[in-house]
Amino acid sequence: MLPAAEPAPTERVLHWEKLPAIPDRVGFASPFAGTHNGALLVAGGANFPDKLPWEGGTKTWYDSIFVLENPQAQWKTAGQLPRPLGYGVSLSTKDGVLCLGGSDAQRHYADAFLLQWNNSQVSTQPLPPLPKPCANFCGAILGNTVYVAGGIETPTATVALKTFWSLSLTNIQAGWRELEPWPGPARMLATAGAQEGSFFLISGAGLKAGPDGKPVREWLRDAYRFTPGKGWKRIADLPRVSVAAPTPALAIGPAHLLVLGGDDGAQINAAPTEHKGFPRDVLAYHTITDTWARMGEVPFSLVTTPAVEWNNRFIVPGGEARPGIRSTEVWAGEPVMKKSGFVFLDYVVLGVYLLSMVIIGWYCSKRESTTDDFFLAGKRIPWWAAGLSILGTQLSAITFMAAPAKSYATDLIYMLGGISIVLVAPIVIRYFLPFFRQLNITTAYEYLEKRFNLPVRLLASFQFCVFQIGRMGVVLFLPSIALSAVTGMDVATCILLMGVLTTIYTVMGGIEAVIWTDVVQVVVLMGGALLCLGMVLFGVEGGPAEVWRIAAADHKLRWVDWTFDPTTTAVWVMIFGQVFHNFMPYGADQAVIQRYLTTPDEKQAARAIWVNAWATIPVTIIFNVMGIALYAFYKTHPDLLEPSLKTDAILPWFIAREVPPGLTGLFIAAIFAAAMSTLDSSMNSVATAVTTDFLKRFRPQTPDRACLNFARWLTVLLGAFATITAILMAKFGNSSLLDLFLNILGLFGGTLSGLFILGIFVPRANGVGALIGSVASGFVVYFVSRHTPLHFFLYAAVGVVSCVTLGTLASLVFPRASRPTAGLTWFSFR
Known about the structure:
By secondary structure, the protein is of the alpha+beta class. It is about 45% helix and about 15% strand.
């Protein structure tokens, strides 16, 4: 006796509505269905047109093709299949609806073809046939490859197939490949799915010959995951059997598959007229925690039918409502976000925090009377505040959410890279800091002009400014998506709150306001993180010990990989790559270097660097352990997950749903803090660079008061640009072009640290060589990133090494009249 299903939760994961019914009196089971050129196609299938099977009715197959051009239109009859056919696999591709195998009243087929809609009729294009006839099987598309599994070869088969085939959509004429099958029993009427780079085979039924020689079903609850290059892996069993559920399973969000109903076998012996319909609960599989949960239910009871994605909704066209009884219903479902736990008290707490940032800016504005105050805070910032400000600058909201999400989804391997700053700090203090402090400069790029020439300074400053300006919109946009999803606030509202308020206090108080708000923001950020970590750890029954046990059992505690493979996160790749990566922010980034210059002397600046370095270690550990704790929490509470939510929003989701009112507002304020601390640094540092490296450089007679006003108005424009850019990104919902722009610019920007190393440690390097080395190294890194499998953690090392090497060689090839280098290289500095 199979266990009965538990009651479904009240919250639905999908909202459903009916579309126009299929134009048939009875409806069809197992038709082919898919989309092409914006239209929904349903073709073939079978039913009992005159009498039901227990009344002596005859099962009939069909070849009609119906087309629905949009959800408000009516169905059209638009052609015929090559023959009456049903019970095959159908999948949507850009070239048409892929129809595979199937059966009619006499036999099963191996045929494969495309149905193509050309806005007036449907045409058929033949494709390489399957290796053998097959029906009642399942399939899904993963990337550019079609995978199909199981089924039966003949109508009277007493053994299901254990076959697994693939077809490349980029090389269709190569035909089907037979792959190693899953390690479990053969099956038919299973559900397939594609999610997170893997193909899934879920439940179904096996076959065996009964006493009378007729096939008897064996109900299966097991499921399997196939990852190309890694093979098969058994995953968690389903809570109940699900045979002939709409397939493919619905891929929701980044890590969920939804199985809609399916036959659980509980009524296998019920009389046909007493059958109460198939289960309606939704079984949700989470690919990260390897768990199943019941998440709501569907308003229909339909099996033996495809599932089709159309216009961002999932379509279930017809199918079998009860044994022998078909349906003409067509249902369309779309994801529904669960309601957040954000209440009025949380808005009050968030509002108090935001108002306090403006008050700090107003207080600091009383002392901002010169550009030295606005850019360097009059060099009156204590070392501990400067150090915490550096930490806040480096900890963006993206990091706040992405670091826990990364360990939640994988393991602790990225933690090692985050703490490598302790290896860089002594190098920066000994070899870089003296130049920035003792040369009496405002921007780091002034050193490059003194060492090389004006074009090198302008190029470096321009690269820095353009990258920061482009980055500001992303810094606002990405966290706003997560904040909106978990708080219910509009994305534009989140962007406006952060953008406008950050601009106000940055304009009023300059770098001093930026630093002191950063200090408050770091305190809020880390206080919230520690409280949240405690709540997650003790939210798991058994507390930290159980979290540790779950993490160890699921191999989540791995933090080093001893391989020598440069394409992976090997321990040497993490350390070596991150050391060079950290040279960029700590040795060439004005947003960080500016903090070194706000302290009274070099000794205090060195202390600030050490504060940041040592604080980064516990911060990195806390955020990575947070991800492991979240993994354990949601593995033990999979029903609390939100399927449509992006993985990067897992921490905000926990905060919004599981944290008591008031504290929720505090934790969300911490995420606002992380975004604002990065944004204010970008705005002030860009204003500093533009005013110092361009305005003052080319118009040195400009009064200091005019330069101060220019910097303030530029800060306003930068804040407005970042806010508007983020809102536009939210409106159009696509940041791919901007992401590409930032990625390419980042590859060139990564060579900035190479310029400083070239100037400090290579006395024979000259301006022409530095320019050639900088530009050429950008192209080298771009080539490596696009045409080699090298891990991206090593790109910074490639940029530094190529910049120094090519810059040195170019200086030898293009020698110029020597410039005074006394006090500008390490060998002549002291």
